[in-house]
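Q: what sequence does this backbone want?
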């Protein structure tokens, strides 16, 4: 039997865009004066990143207290790492008296740890191929898993412009209040601003999100659909929306970590995310070359990722993330040579060494992009911090 917290719960799932959408929600609701609780995964440098209260990371002491509470309450029940994390986060949100909890799905949706909580509104940002070993190898199979976060009679937001039939069918079968991009809410953008229109409210003259990439507008549109859906419990005005969009940040999402040469870190690790990254690179062309530092996990579609970025990258440094699941750098080099024929490919064992090598050959007007895995980005963020 599920027990609902006394505050609204928003659950965010989807193949890509979950972290950015959660960051949007936290920024806008925080600007509106609400005390937010945010649970995300994975982390980059510290576990504390996964739990934020009022925009502040949980301290070690707060995490320990919460985990002790969960451990004492579970009795003989065995819990996974992710279940401990989700329950521990919610324990902290309850203790802190938050006004709203924002929970990011870790994998899939239907069987994910955060799905133990009934969402007052649930957002699926989009559906594409990733984690096929667990979720299925088609968009229809994956769409059904993502739709598992929807609840009967409650707002079920879908920001995918072409949602799988399985997602729509599941939402209809359980009687969820399904609201789809293009049908129930829309957005229009110009170079300077954009407008969002839903069933009951419209917001215009909005600033583009501070997060880089035109695809962030779709993420933000899904977020505004959530805010429309929960407006009776969590009303926000257009001023808070504008302030949140201007201030939002999300580590590892086209994050600039150095200049001259400009160095960007992005956690893109599947073909859809790689296509979005390639589009952002085209939107923000470098004066010189674009150099890539890439390390991936063996269970990811390396060929699809490389193909998506082949035309955007002039030179490659490949490496292996610090994970037992890492794709060997030599194997990734083979993939690059086959999917980006003619490109210069160099192999380094570790992401830090690959970044140093790229920096050593880069000219001041070149750009370095680091991507392929959360592990790869984490390694270079940690390395960059030690160089400052």
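A:
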């Amino acid at each position: 039997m599920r027990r609902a917290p006394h505050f609204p719960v928003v659950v965010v799932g989807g193949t890509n865009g979950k972290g950015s959408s959660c960051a949007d929600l936290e920024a806008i609701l925080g600007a509106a004066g609400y005390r937010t609780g945010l649970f995300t995964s994975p982390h980059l440098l510290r576990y504390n990143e996964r739990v934020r209260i009022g925009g502040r990371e949980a301290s070690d002491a707060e995490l320990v207290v919460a985990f002790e509470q969960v451990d004492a309450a579970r009795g003989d029940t065995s819990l996974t790492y992710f279940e401990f994390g989700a329950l521990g986060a919610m324990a902290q949100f309850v203790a802190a008296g938050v006004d709203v909890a924002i929970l990011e799905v870790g994998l899939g949706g239907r069987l994910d740890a955060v799905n133990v909580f009934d969402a007052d509104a649930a957002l699926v940002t989009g559906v594409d191929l990733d984690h096929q070993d667990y979720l299925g190898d088609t968009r229809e199979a994956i769409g059904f898993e993502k739709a598992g976060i929807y609840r009967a009679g409650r707002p079920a937001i879908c920001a995918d412009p072409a949602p799988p039939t399985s997602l729509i069918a599941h939402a209809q079968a359980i009687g969820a209040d399904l609201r789809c991009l293009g049908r129930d809410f829309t957005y229009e953008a110009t170079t300077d601003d954009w407008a969002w229109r839903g069933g009951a409210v419209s917001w215009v003259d909005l600033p583009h999100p501070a997060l880089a990439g035109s695809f962030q507008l779709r993420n933000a549109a899904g977020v505004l659909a959530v805010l429309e859906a929960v407006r009776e419990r969590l009303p926000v005005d257009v001023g808070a929306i504008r302030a949140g969009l201007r201030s939002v940040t999300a580590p590892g999402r086209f994050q600039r970590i150095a200049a001259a040469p400009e160095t960007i870190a992005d956690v893109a690790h599947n073909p859809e995310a790689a296509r979005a990254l390639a589009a952002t690179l085209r939107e923000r062309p470098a004066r010189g070359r674009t150099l890539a530092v890439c390390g991936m996990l063996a269970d990811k579609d390396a060929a699809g990722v490389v193909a998506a970025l082949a035309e955007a990258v002039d030179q490659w440094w490949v490496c292996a993330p610090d994970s037992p699941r890492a794709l060997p750098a030599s194997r990734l080099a083979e993939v690059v040579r086959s999917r980006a024929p003619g490109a210069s490919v160099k192999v380094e064992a570790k992401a830090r060494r690959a970044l140093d090598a790229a920096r050593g050959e880069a000219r001041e007007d070149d750009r370095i992009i680091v991507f392929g895995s959360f592990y790869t980005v984490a390694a270079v963020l940690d390395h960059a911090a030690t160089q400052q």
